[in-house]
């Protein structure tokens, strides 16, 4: 799955936010999101398939964590666009100040 498709869904973005604090078991994610376990599992599979999270088994639990390399790639790709919009917004701000 494409990274942008994966992060387009709000629950998946929330999972990524929860994992920013560190590795978490699937059960904690279910509890934090207030979704069913099968629903969270589907979201986690999409995030795994997109390379945004990794999973490891520990006894009966599955522990999930952010895949920082993949996120760094996404951030690097987005960087020029952030500069583009920052420049455009600054130009709009200048224009609005001149209009007043």
UniProtKB/TrEMBL annotation:
<dbReference type="InterPro" id="IPR011991">
    <property type="entry name" value="ArsR-like_HTH"/>
</dbReference>
<keyword id="KW-0805">Transcription regulation</keyword>
<dbReference type="InterPro" id="IPR051081">
    <property type="entry name" value="HTH_MetalResp_TranReg"/>
</dbReference>
<dbReference type="InterPro" id="IPR001845">
    <property type="entry name" value="HTH_ArsR_DNA-bd_dom"/>
</dbReference>
<keyword id="KW-0238">DNA-binding</keyword>
<dbReference type="InterPro" id="IPR036388">
    <property type="entry name" value="WH-like_DNA-bd_sf"/>
</dbReference>
<protein>
    <submittedName>
        <fullName>ArsR/SmtB family transcription factor</fullName>
    </submittedName>
</protein>
<dbReference type="Pfam" id="PF01022">
    <property type="entry name" value="HTH_5"/>
</dbReference>
<dbReference type="InterPro" id="IPR036390">
    <property type="entry name" value="WH_DNA-bd_sf"/>
</dbReference>
<feature type="domain" description="HTH arsR-type">
    <location>
        <begin position="1"/>
        <end position="86"/>
    </location>
</feature>
<keyword id="KW-0804">Transcription</keyword>
């Amino acid at each position: 799955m494409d990274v942008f498709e994966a992060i387009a869904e709000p629950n998946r973005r929330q999972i990524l936010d929860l994992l920013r604090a560190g590795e978490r078991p699937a059960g904690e994610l279910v509890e934090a999101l207030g979704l069913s376990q099968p629903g969270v599992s589907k979201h986690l599979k999409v995030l795994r398939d997109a390379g945004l999270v990794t999973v490891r088994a520990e006894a009966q639990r599955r522990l999930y964590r952010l895949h920082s390399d993949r996120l760094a790639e996404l951030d690097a790709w987005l960087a020029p666009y952030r500069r583009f919009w920052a420049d455009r917004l600054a130009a709009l701000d200048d224009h609005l100040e001149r209009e007043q």
